[in-house]
Structures are given as C-alpha cells and as structure tokens.
Amino acid sequence: MYAVILYYYFARITDPDEFCREHKRKCQELNLFGRIYIASEGINGTLSGGVEQIEEYKNYLRSLDGFAQTEFKEERIDHVPFVKLVVKTRKEIVTLKSKVSIDSTEEKGKHLSPLEWREHLENEEDILLIDVRNNYESEIGHFKGAVKPDIKNFYDFEGWVDRSELDKNKKVLMYCTGGIRCEKFSVLMEKKGFKDVYQLQGGIINYAQQEDGAHFKGKCFVFDDRLAVEVEKNQKEPLGKCAISGVPCDTYINCHNMDCNQLFICSKEAAIEFQGCCSKECMTSVRCRPFLPDNIYMPSRKWYQYYDENQWLDIREKREQQTTYTKEG
Ligand SMILES: [Zn+2]
Fold it and tell me: Of 11, 62, 168, 295, which one is least surrounded by beta carbons within 10 A?
C-alpha cells in the first residue's frame, strides 16, 4: 500500500534555490516520487511513496519555519503513479502571468468548507458557480450547473474573466482540483470588482472525501498517471466524449505522434483505428511510438519504462522504411 498526497502552502521563502536543494535531498532519502514547485511565495506539490515515508515527509515540511499549518489531501493507492521525482523552483507556484500583482502570503480569499459549499449549492439560487480548471479537465466531471470556461491553461483564466461579462454583483462560488488555483483566482476576481467571491476549501478532492461527491457529476482529472479519480458515486455513463468517434468516454491518452503528444479523450475502438494518434495526419508521422493494443491507456511517460531504446529504434526503422516505400510507391 502506498500514499499519494496533494498540498500547497503560501509562505515567504527567502532562498528558494537552497530550499529546493534541501527538499530534493529529503525526498530522495525517503524514496518519494512526484513533482514539487517552489517559489518565493511558497510550495505546491504532489508526491507518492510508502505510507510511513509520506508521513515523515509531512512532518518534515510542517517542521519548517512558516509551514506548520500546511494541509495535505491524502489517499491510499496500490501503486506509485509517478515514475520520477521533480523538485524545481519557479517564479510562481500557480502561473497566473497577470499584470495584477497578488501576494498570496498576505492576500487571502474567502473559503467555504465542503459542508458549507454543499449547503450553498442546496439553498442558494442566485449564484455564479465557476469551474476554474482547463477545458480538458472539466469535460469529464464538474459540479452541476457550473460555468466551464473554454481555456487550455491556468493563465488563460484572467482573459476569460475579462471577456465573459459576468455580473459582478452576483455571489461567486469557484472551485478547482485541490484549491490552489482558487487561492489566486478568487483574489484576482475581487481585484477586478467582483463583490462576493468564495472558494471551495481543498478543492474537489477534499470535497469528494468529506461530502461524498454530492452535486458533482463524473470524475476529477488529476495530474498524475491515474489521470482521473472517482467523485460521483455509481456513475452510469462517462460525461466526456471521445474526440475521434464522439462516443461517451472519460479515458485520456497522449497522441502517439511524439511531436504532437496532445492529451485527448479517446475510446478504445478509436485508439485502435487511429493507432493511438489524435488525427489521420499524426498517423503519418515517422515519429510515432508503437501502439500497444493491450496497454492503450498506459501514460506515455510510463511507456518508456517498458521499452528499451534498441527495441524502440528497431520498430521506428521498420516504420520509416514502410513510409519511404509508401511514398515512392
Ligand atoms: Zn496528434
């Protein structure tokens, strides 16, 4: 049995590089995998490893100056959903790319606990419910009645708010996966003149655990090898649609053309027909990794563990010969 944790904390870090080195050393010592971003404004991470080692890591982070109050969303899992450990510094732990400056170590939005959130959904009619995640995330699962911005990156959110002409006097309820994006987006919306903005404490993951996923339809996209986790109980049909065939589907693959590598929702049948590619055009690329019908939903980065380089080159050469032949013929 393993544990996977999702966490963030905004606190001033005076020397992010040194903090990063020390953190990496600690994670290696505990044999943890995942990714951690560190900036002068704080830390954002998702990690997996042995249950005891994860516990030790949590104690370690909470022992650091300013991080005693860090909260962790934790789940038990039968395998580690990461193949690497990445610990690095960034300018911001949530990339906003905004002209509006937000100091999240000082400026906080208003939080609703999962129970309060549920009560708001059940009792208030005139609210503006916003799913602040990317379009490919909200497609497979979201709260009933939520506005879902058609955006591809975190930093497209601000532009969407500016364009959308939302009523600034309405009460806003916003949510994301684990809560970190809302920490910035809620302050951002207040600065843009929205009068009453609330965010879901701990995001969908926390809500799923505390309130059993009530009023949520479908699954929650996560940024690890699992790609999606269950939120709605006894879900009957997937919410998303296969990007190729249009059938109901909530499983993602990366396009097998390595120059494209786009993450998209794909049914098993369409994956077989398109050999794991997102389009006919990508199918003609010589830089396609081989399609494995028995492991369609294996994440691309995991795939490299299973195939050594020589085997891969053999396959690629054959493919290139075939392509050359077809072109000449
Ligand atoms: Zn493609």
Answer: 295
Of the residues 20, 176, 266, 288, only one is catalytic, namely: 176
Question: Is 20 a known active-site residue?
Answer: no
Strands 85-89 and 33-39: parallel
Q: Tell me whether residue 308 is in a domain.
A: yes
End-to-end CA gap in the chain: 55
Q: 1-27: per-residue pLDDT in tens?
A: 999 999 999 999 999 999 999 999 999
CA distance 172 to 285: 46
Ligand 1 centre and the CA of 286: distance in Å? 12
Q: Whole domain around residue 286: which residue ranges?
A: 252-328
CATH number, domain of 143, equals 3.40.250.10
CATH number at residue 80: 3.30.70.100
Centroid of ligand 1 to alpha carbon of 327 (angstroms): 21
As for how many domains the chain has, the answer is 3
> Could you give the CA distance from residue 80 to residue 103 in angstroms, rounded to a whole number?
34
Span 237-263, pLDDT tens digits: 999 999 999 999 999 998 999 889 888
207 CA → ligand 1 middle, Å: 34
Are residues 212 and 175 located together in one domain of the fold? yes
Q: How far is the CA of 257 from the centre of ligand 1 (A)?
A: 6
Count Cα neighbours of 27 within 13 Å in the Cβ-side half-sphere: 22
Distance from the alpha carbon of residue 276 to the mean position of ligand 1, in angstroms: 9
